[in-house]
Design brief:
Keywords: Transferase. This is Glutathione S-transferase family protein. Residues 1-81 form the GST N-terminal domain. With 225 residues, the protein is mainly alpha-helical. The protein is built from 9 helices and 4 strands; from the N terminus they run βαβαββααααααα. It folds into 2 domains: 2-76, Glutaredoxin (3-Layer(aba) Sandwich), CATH 3.40.30; 87-214, Glutathione S-transferase Yfyf (Class Pi), Chain A, domain 2. 58% of the residues lie in helices and 6% in strands. Strands 2-1-3-4 form a 4-stranded mixed beta sheet, covered by helices on one side. The two termini are 30 Å apart. 36% of the residues are buried. It binds glutathione. Residues 6, 9, 11, 47-50, 65-67, 101 line the site of glutathione.
């Protein structure tokens, strides 16, 4: 299998965590933002990464979107399962997954790119990096006002996740689900921001544990050694 990705994207991390949890062998092809459209649009009709190319007879040619990739992996390799045996719990896991994907992953992006452009500029002050950050900020309308709204959404997410993760090892049910993978991947960029890293130690402990369960290297800010 081949995963088309941006190496630093948290949505691509989510797809890699699904592949890693299932222990499916895959290669990655890192694309350059902007130029990626020429490669991806003809395959999926969309502009976004990740895209998985199973490269196996009888399987779809290309699967766009991290959620669809997780669904595909579950049918391709059912064990270990990412789906909960209880239908109501699995429905709840999908609801959380969708909220994390559509709302919280976006809020993370807003807060992260604001940080990288201002207080965290020294992480990579190079012209190329700052140009990419500036293009992303324009593309998504990231500014002080939209970042404040995103921060409020993150505070709400931390409340919801802390209730669930402090009661139980998993967000729903008694095993890892699509909800845990989504939360761990989509909040991981916040590990570089001291305000979050210091304010929510329990969150990053859980993010580390889930990365280990998924055989995925830890994200920047949480890497060992
Ligand atoms: N809901 C989508 C979101 C993917 C997404 O937003 N990907 C970003 C990278 S983090 C992207 O490809 N942006 C490029 C573009 O929109 O042109 C998923 O889960 O795959």
């Amino acid at each position: 299998m081949l995963l088309l990705q941006f190496s630093t994207s948290h949505y691509c991390r989510k797809a890699r965590m699904g592949l890693g949890y299932k222990q499916v062998k895959y290669k990655t092809e890192n694309l350059t933002p902007g130029w990626h459209i020429r490669r991806v649009r003809p395959l999926t009709g969309l502009n976004t990464l990740p895209v998985l190319l199973p490269e196996i007879d009888g399987q779809p040619h290309a699967i766009a979107d991290s959620t669809e990739i997780l669904k595909f992996l579950e049918t391709y390799q059912p064990q270990p399962s990412l789906f909960l045996p209880d239908y109501e719990q699995q429905t709840e896991a999908w609801m959380l997954e969708d909220w994390l994907d559509e709302s919280i992953g976006t809020a993370t992006r807003f807060v992260y790119y604001q940080f990288r452009a201002v207080e965290g500029k020294q992480i990579d002050p190079s012209l190329v990096s700052q140009m990419v950050i500036s293009v992303v900020r324009q593309q998504y309308g990231i500014n002080q006002a939209s970042v404040e709204l995103a921060k409020n959404r993150l505070v709400m997410a931390f409340s919801e996740l802390s209730i669930r993760w402090q009661k139980n090892d998993y967000l729903v049910g008694n095993q890892l689900s699509v909800a845990d993978i989504s939360a761990a991947a989509l909040l991981s960029p916040l590990a570089l921001i001291p305000e979050y890293r210091q304010g929510y130690p329990w969150l990053f402990e859980r993010i580390v544990q889930i990365h280990k369960l998924c055989n995925e290297p830890l994200p920047p800010g949480l890497s060992e050694g």
